[in-house]
UniProtKB/TrEMBL annotation:
Protein name: Endoglucanase
UniProt xrefs under InterPro entries: 6-hairpin_glycosidase_sf (IPR008928), 6hp_glycosidase-like_sf (IPR012341), Glyco_hydro_9 (IPR001701), Glyco_hydro_9_Asp/Glu_AS (IPR033126)
Enzyme category, top tier: hydrolase
Annotated signal sequence range: 1-15
Enzyme Commission code(s) on record: 3.2.1.4
Keyword Metal-binding: no
SUPFAM superfamilies: Six-hairpin glycosidases
Protein source organism: Artemia franciscana
Domain Glycoside hydrolase family: 19-441
Length: 447
C-alpha cells in the first residue's frame, strides 16, 4: 500500500478538523500581510498603515498589495501567483466560502491584490514588478510602520526590459479575478479583464524573463522555469474568462512550443505547468491533456518521495507549500474524474498533516501545539511603545503577536521541524505558502 494511503488508514480517517475555522484563520494571515493604508475594518490589532508612499520617488502610486513573507518586499511574481490561486479557489468553491461565513473576506483578500496590480499596470507595455530592495529589507528587523531605511526603490517591465512570466502571471491573476467578481461586481470584473487582455499582449509580444530585467528579484524569486508556462497559463485563463477561441488557439500553440506535456516536479510560483495541464483538460476535454494530468497525478501518488509520516516531499524549502499545491491540483483532477478517490484521499492526508495529524499544527494560532515563533517581523514585535529590533529576532520566547492562519515552511524529510524564528527554511511564512492551502480547505469542505 502506498505510504500516503497507509497514513490515511492509520490517522487521517479518524482525525476531524474544523475546515471553517482553518479557512477563517488563513484569510486573517493575508490581512496581516497588507501594505499601504489599511481599511477601517482591519482585524489585525498590531498592524497599521505603512509604505503609503511606495512609488512616489518614480511618480507612481504603488501603495497597497501584500508583503511577501516575514519581510516587507512586494515581489509581484509570487504575489500574482498567489492571487491567481485564490481567485481560482473562489471560482470553484464560492458556495463553500459562503457556508463558512468567509465569502466577503475572501473577495476582499483577492481584491486587495488585484487593486495593486491594476495600479502597477501604468500603460499597455509598462508593468511595475517589485517595490523594495530585498537586501536592504532583510537587513532590517522591526515594524513596517517604523521603517527607517529610506524610500523604497521600484522596478518595472517595459518593451526594452520585458518579463513575459511576470506579465503573463499578472494577466492570469486578473483574468481569474474577472471571473471571481463577475456575479458580484461586473464593472470591476470588466476592469480586471481589460488589464488582463493588455498584459497578455505585452507578455506575448515582448518576450523575456522578468528576473533578467529586474535583477534584484532574481536574487530571491528567479524565474527558473522560464516564461513559457506563464504565457500558456495566461492564454488558457483568458480563454476561460472570455470563451474566445483565439485565446484557446494561443494556449494550444504555446503548449506545444514550450513542451508543456512533460511531468512537472511541482506546482508553485515558478512552475505553472501542472495548472496549465489541468485547465487545458478541464476546458477542452481533450484526451491528450487528460493523459498529461493523469501522468502528473500518478507521479504524485506513486513515484514522489514521502516522509516517514506521509508528507509528500517535493522540495526542502517550503515543503508544506508544495504539498498544498500538489493537493490542489489533485482535488481539481478528482473533479474531472481522474483518480477521484485516490486524489481526494491524498489531499486530505496532506492537509490533515498540516492541521495536526503528527501531533502538532503547522498553522499559527490553529489546532494543537501550533507554531509560536514564525520568522515574521510584525508578529515578533511587542506591543507599542516598546521598540522592536534584532533583539526580538534573537529572543527564544514565542512571538508576542499571534500570526493567526500562517502556514509555516514545514519539516525536513524525516518529519523533524524546528519552531525557531531563526530557521527561515522551516519556519518562515509567505503569501504563496497559504494560497493553495486556502484553496484546499474550501474544496475539502464538500468531500
Amino acid at each position: 500500500m502506498k505510504l500516503f494511503a497507509l497514513v490515511l488508514c492509520i490517522t487521517g480517517a479518524l482525525a476531524q478538523y474544523n475546515y471553517d475555522e482553518a479557512l477563517s484563520a488563513s484569510l486573517l494571515f493575508y490581512e496581516a500581510q497588507r501594505s499601504g493604508v489599511l481599511p477601517s475594518d482591519n482585524r489585525i490589532p498590531y498592524r497599521g498603515n505603512c509604505f503609503v508612499d511606495d512609488g512616489a520617488s518614480v511618480g507612481v502610486d504603488l501603495s497597497g498589495g501584500y508583503h511577501d513573507a516575514g519581510d516587507y518586499v512586494k515581489f509581484n511574481f509570487p504575489m500574482a501567483f498567489t492571487n491567481t490561486i485564490l481567485a481560482w479557489s473562489l471560482i470553484e468553491n464560492e458556495a463553500e466560502f459562503s457556508s463558512a461565513g468567509q465569502l466577503d473576506y475572501m473577495r476582499k483578500t483577492v481584491k486587495w491584490g488585484t487593486d495593486y496590480f491594476i495600479k502597477c499596470h501604468t500603460s499597455d507595455n509598462e508593468l511595475w514588478g517589485q517595490v523594495g530592495d530585498g537586501n536592504v529589507d532583510h537587513s532590517y528587523w522591526g515594524r513596517c510602520e517604523d521603517w527607517n531605511q529610506g524610500a523604497r526603490p521600484a522596478w518595472k517591465l517595459t518593451t526594452g526590459a520585458p518579463g513575459s512570466d511576470l506579465a503573463g502571471e499578472t494577466a492570469a491573476a486578473l483574468a481569474a479575478a474577472s471571473m471571481a467578481f463577475r456575479s458580484s461586481d461586473s464593472g470591476y470584473a470588466d476592469t480586471c479583464l481589460d488589464h488582463a487582455r493588455r498584459l497578455f499582449e505585452f507578455a506575448r509580444n515582448y518576450r523575456g524573463k522578468y528576473s533578467d530585467s529586474i535583477s534584484n528579484a532574481g536574487q530571491f524569486y528567479n524565474s527558473w522555469s522560464g516564461y513559457g508556462d506563464e504565457l500558456t497559463w495566461a492564454a488558457i485563463w483568458l480563454y476561460r474568462a472570455t470563451e474566445e477561441a483565439s485565446y484557446l488557439d494561443a494556449a494550444k500553440g504555446f503548449y506545444n512550443e514550450f513542451s508543456m506535456s512533460g511531468t512537472p516536479s511541482q506546482f508553485s510560483w515558478d512552475d505553472k505547468k501542472a495548472g496549465v495541464q489541468l485547465l487545458m483538460a478541464k476546458l477542452t476535454g481533450d484526451g491528450q491533456y487528460r493523459a498529461d494530468v493523469q501522468n502528473y497525478v500518478n507521479y504524485l501518488l506513486y513515484q514522489a518521495r514521502y516522509t516517514p509520516k506521509g508528507l509528500i516531499f517535493l522540495d526542502t524549502w517550503g515543503v508544506l507549500r508544495h504539498a498544498a499545491g500538489a493537493s490542489w491540483i489533485c482535488l481539481q483532477a478528482a473533479d474531472l474524474g481522474i483518480s477521484t478517490t485516490e486524489c481526494q484521499n491524498f489531499a486530505k492526508t496532506q492537509v490533515h498533516y498540516m492541521l495536526g495529524d503528527v501531533g502538532h499544527s503547522f498553522v499559527c494560532g490553529y489546532g494543537t501545539n501550533p507554531p509560536q515563533r514564525p520568522h515574521h517581523r510584525p508578529s515578533s514585535c511587542p506591543d507599542y511603545p516598546a521598540p522592536c529590533d534584532w533583539n526580538d529576532y534573537n529572543s527564544p520566547n514565542p512571538n508576542p503577536q499571534v500570526l493567526t492562519g500562517a502556514l509555516v515552511g514545514g519539516p525536513n524529510d524525516q518529519d523533524v521541524w524546528n519552531d525557531s524564528r531563526q530557521d527561515y527554511v522551516t519556519n518562515e511564512v509567505t503569501i504563496d505558502y497559504n494560497a493553495a492551502f486556502t484553496a484546499c480547505l474550501a474544496a475539502l469542505k464538500r468531500i
